[in-house]
Design goal:
The protein is mainly α. It contains five helices and three strands; from the N terminus they run ααβββααα. It has a three-stranded antiparallel sheet, with no helix packed on it. It is elongated, with a radius of gyration of 16 Å.
Amino acid sequence: MAEENIFTGVNSIKFNQRFKDDNDCLIYLSNVKWEDGYKCKRCKNDKFSTGKKHHNRRCTKCNYDESPTVGTLFEKLKFSILIAFHIVFKISTKKKGMSSLELSNEFELRQKTCWSFKLKIQQACQVA
C-alpha cells in the first residue's frame, strides 16, 4: 500500500482534512484491511468483485460479501463510521483519553453507546 494511504500524526487539522465523510473512512479501512491482497474468509479464494456496497468485496467462488469493517472495532456500528473514527482519534491523542460522558456530549451519542465503543477500543488495543 502506498505510504500516502496511511494516516500518521496527531494533527487534528490533517485528520479532519483526510477524513471528511464515511466514504473516506471506508476507503482507508479497505486499503489497510486488504493491503496484502484479498482472501475470502470462508473459502480462501483470492478473486473478488464489487459487493453489495461499493467498498465491499464479493468472493467470486462462494459469493461471500465482506465489508471493510468486518473483523474490526468498526463492525456492527450503530452510528456513523466517521464519528467512530473521530472518537478513536480523540481518545488516542488526548493524554488522559476522554470519558464516555465527554464523548457523549461532544458527539451527541448516548453515554452507554460511547461507553460500549470505548470498551471495544480498549479490547482491540489489548489484542494488538
